[in-house]
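Hey, quick one: can you model this chain's 3D structure?
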Amino acid sequence: MPGPEMVSEDRRRYTVEEANLLLPELRASLERIRASRQVVLAGGQRVRRSAALNGGGTPGREYWQALGTLRHEVEDLSERDIILRDPETGLLDFPALRDDEEIFLCWLPEEERVGFWHRTTTGFAGRLPL
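Sure thing. Here's the predicted structure for all 130 residues.
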């Protein structure tokens, strides 16, 4: 069983205000992640079957484009130290400090603003209102 997730010293930490300013951009990114993920999941098997015959054709291009988009969007989040917990729901965690304790600000796309946090040891089940 993995131990508690620790926030490294060199990881960016967000304030609630900073995280909230990113939400419109992150909503768009999460939609691209979700759509690309669906193409990859649906097309993977089809591409494998057709690749042996004709190199994949149009469905193959869509699959590889979706895979590239998915990779780009997830890498962008990672470079910002934003943690994508669930690509289907869009659950994101932002490293933060609360009373000198390492925490995560926790957000779902259907929420208007970042309004919850949890300790690094509890995860989503330990979400508390700000």
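One thing worth noting: DSSP finds two helices and five strands in the chain.
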